[in-house]
Design goal:
By secondary structure, this protein is of the alpha+beta class. The protein has a single domain (5-187), classed as OB fold (Dihydrolipoamide Acetyltransferase, E2P) (Beta Barrel). The chain has helices at residues 42-49, 89-95, 141-145, 149-152, 177-187; strands at residues 5-7, 18-19, 24-25, 29-31, 55-58, 61-64, 68-69, 74-79, 82-87, 98-102, 109-110, 115-121, 125-129, 134-139, 159-165. A hairpin with a 2-residue loop joins strand 8 and strand 9 (82-87).
Length: 194
Amino acid sequence: MSEFDKTVIPGEPKDRGRDPESSKVVENQIILNPPPISAGDDELRHSLWGERLFLMQYENAYIPEELNYTRNHLWVAIEDGLCTLGWTDYIQSNAGDVNYVELPEEGTMVDVDEDFGSIETSKWVDRLYSPVKGQVVEVNHKVIGQPVLINKAPFAEGWFVKIEPNGETGSQNLLSAEEYLEYLKVCEGEDSRS
């Protein structure tokens, strides 16, 4: 991790990803804590970052370290025997405004690399592919009615589904935060060795 600048970015959430001294976008930075939000704004902080405090960053996109990732730009939180899936900050920021999301019904069985829904943005329409095999046990109906939550709070209120793994979890296809950061560099045509 020596290639990263280890600092904390001060400022309000609107300043996230920017160096307040120079107003330049800060790239490939480890952020030890998210930008502070004034006292009493716990609800706002939670809506932006959830409980995710340890972050990596690629351009303006945050990558929480405790999550896993897929090459299809989903984040995967494995907690209490369930896999929660959502779109990464990187893909939502590149896709533009999310206009529509279609998700499966609870009880639906999904397989690894099987599509479980679709998403429409101001730039494109895409399918959502499951990195795990199992049963959908919870669907985020709030995001169906308010797809903008995917843009506003991708790691908090903007999640898609919770899946109870059944057999193969597909974990061999999941990336760590560092591996996902390197993958983004490849996607953007950067030489990750520089």
